[in-house]
Specification:
By secondary structure, the chain is mainly alpha-helical. It has six helices and no strands. The protein is elongated. 11% of the residues are buried.
């Protein structure tokens, strides 16, 4: 009986070690995978766009990237200001209050620009595809801190 329990424990430990190793390898290699050649390919498949329609969407996406990057930089700068003031303060100060307002304004500017970009992108699509695209993408845009580039390239 004692031998059977020992054998069972060894087999269980082996199975557990195998599963843990497999999980670890898969999680490590997930991050090593190269990015897809066309990160917007899902848009074409999901919304049944022609090659020409996808090319127009990709062009709009590329043109928006510098604006998005600048807005992200400004948001990070505003958040950095808040962090610095929090480190230096032991109470709410007018400077901290103003920094919070400025950071919220940067977020609102970014969200407005994102939505404008999304509507302009939808205008490049056939009506049915545009409606589906708007429903899919606008429901994900209001996530705090998520950039339009991430939303566009993230598969639904």
């Amino acid at each position: 009986m004692k031998r059977s329990l020992t054998l069972l424990a060894i087999v269980a430990a082996g199975v557990l070690a195998f599963c843990a190793t497999r999980w670890w390898r898969l999680s490590v290699h997930e991050h090593d995978a190269p990015p897809p050649a066309d990160p917007l390919a899902w848009v074409q498949k999901e919304f049944h766009l022609s090659d020409a329609e996808l090319a127009a969407v990709e062009e709009k996406h590329r043109a928006y990237q510098p604006k998005c990057a600048e807005m992200c930089r400004r948001i990070e700068e505003a958040n950095g200001r808040i962090a610095a003031l929090l480190q230096a303060s032991r109470s709410m100060t007018p400077e901290l209050e103003e920094a919070i307002r400025a950071a919220q304004l940067r977020q609102a500017e970014c969200q407005t620009a994102m939505l404008t970009h999304i509507y302009e992108t939808a205008a490049l699509m056939p009506a049915e595809a545009a409606q589906s695209y708007l429903k899919t993408v606008t429901s994900r845009v209001c996530r705090d801190g998520q950039c339009i580039m991430e939303v566009m390239e993230e598969k639904p």
